[in-house]
Every structure is written in structure tokens, then in C-alpha cells.
Amino acid sequence: MAGGTERQYMKGVSAFLQISGEDFFDVEGILSQLPSSYPDFIPLLKKKKEIRILSVGSGNWDWGKPLYFARKLKEIGVLAVVDFVEPKLERRRKLLESFEGENSDHFGRVYSKTIDDVECNCEYDVVTVLHTLYESSRNKDGTIPTLKKITSCLKKDGLCIFILEDSAGDFQKIKRSLYPSFGKIEPVSQEVLERSLKKEKIPYEVGKMIEFDFNLDKWRGASDEELGEIMGFLFSDSLDCPPLTPQECRTVGKWVRKNTRKNGKNEYLWTPDIVIWARKNNGKK
User: Fold this and answer.
1) Cβ atoms within 10 A of the Cβ of 154, count?
2) Which of 70, 132, 140, 183 sits CB 3.0–4.6 Å from 57 for a disulfide?
3) What pLDDT was estimated at residue 87?
4) What's the pLDDT tens digit per position in 221-272?
5) pLDDT digits over 110-128, tens only?
């Protein structure tokens, strides 16, 4: 089942990232919001000149954003070296391919474990958690227990950057609609993240929405099952989650067709993100 899960997940998320341009839009959103949210942070990084970033994954294939972030920082004179938390072998292999050639200057080390099992050997200027909470373990009350460990990896003046699907968007809408009938718990959302941060007494601020769409024109002739297979990555809620069954794929495909938006001849889902900024809890209660 694990192999099927990986194939389904990587097929869907690869298609989404290529068409949506999410890696670009999310990083540009972060950089555009930083001056107003934390006006002293970029000047602080420029003063340091060389920084270390920890990209936290929980099995998700999403290292393009940290790489693009590091390359943008290099443009303003900050060398960012990125360490990665990636427990899944196939995704670690793809990660290595992304940091060849000119990108090798940004490549640090890879922890082949989950964040819970990682012993960080340094503190980080920036920790990024960019769409990598969806497969995280959960407490009985639905909160995310790894947040304390994540923010503990920060330097005292460091910043943790979370990005999630905006709750108003279609990806959260499909999860809220179908997770219960698929036997899944409450999907990770902004509300879940905020509830978890409050529980751990971690200081945070909610940023702004980052707008973009997922164009569906490519799949106009696809069957419900084929369309659901593409969207299967949205339903991976744990590291050992099985792939969607053919019937579940058909259910997802039918939902997408019913809720597809149109702009002229274009068909799409509205897939905005939201930024959450968090700092280290330096002994505050």
C-alpha cells in the first residue's frame, strides 16, 4: 500500500505544483509580507550575511519553496543553507536532485526522520513549515504535538513560517466535505494550527492570504476516477495513509466537477494559502 500511496501522492502534487506555480507565489507572498509583519527581520538577516534554515516536512514533497526562498535571499546578499527533515526515502531522492549544480550552495543536511525524532545540532534563523503539517500526528483533542519541537529549533531571534491552505479555499472545502465520509479526522487547517499554538503557548501572528488558482483545463476529458486520483494528495493525513480506493477517487472527481469554478473558458479551483508567523517561546508562560 505504501508504494501506491507514494505514487498517487507524488503524481497529484507534482501536477498541482507545475500548474499552480504555488512554490513561486508562496515565497513571493512571504517576502512581500515580511517588511510589514516583521520590519526588522530582513535587515537582521542581511547583517548576519549567512543563515541556516530548517525545512520541516512530515512526509510531504515540498522542498521547492525553501529552495526558492534561499535563492531569493541570495539576491539580497544573504547566503541561506537549508537543512531538511524528510522521513520518506523516495522524497529524499527527489530532494537531492533539486539541489544539484548552482543550487548546491544552499544544500545542508537531510534528517531522514520525522521532526519528533530529530536531534537538531544547531539552532536556526528560520524554520519553514510550508504545507508540511497535513500528515503530522495529532493529539486526542486534534491539536498538533510537534509544534513545540519545531519552534524549539529556532534561535532566540528566529522566525518560524507556516503556510497552510486558506480555510476559505476549495482545498479546505473538499476536505471538510469528504474527510468525514472517508473516515478521516478533522483536517489540518488554520483553526487547528492556531488552537495548537495556543495550547503550547507559542507566540504567533496571522498573516495575509496568498491568492492563486489550480487550473483544471488539462483534465477536462478525464474520468471522475482519473480526476480524483490527481486530487488524491489532498487526502494523505498520516505517514502511513493508504491511497484512495477507486470508489473514493470517483467520489472526489465528482465533487471537483460539481464545484469547479469558471472564468470565461478556463476551469479552476480557488486554492489560496495563509501565512502564520511564530516565534520561540523563550520561557514565557
Assistant:
1) 22
2) 132
3) 76
4) 999 999 999 999 999 888 788 889 999 999 999 999 999 999 999 999 999 9
5) 888 888 888 877 899 999 9
* Domain range annotation of the chain: 2-168+185-214+272-278
Q: How far is CA 230 from CA 7, 214, 219, in A?
A: 10, 12, 9
Q: Which three cell numbers stand for residue 246?
A: 477507486
Distance between CA atoms of residues 205 and 24, nearest Å: 22
Written as nine digits, the cell of 166 is 486558506
Q: Are 186 and 192 in contact (CB under 8 A)?
A: yes
Is residue 178 classed exposed, middle or buried when 0-12, 13-18 and 19+ CB atoms within 10 A define those classes?
A: buried
For domain 2-168+185-214+272-278, give the CATH number.
3.40.50.150
The verdict on pTM exceeding 0.85 is yes
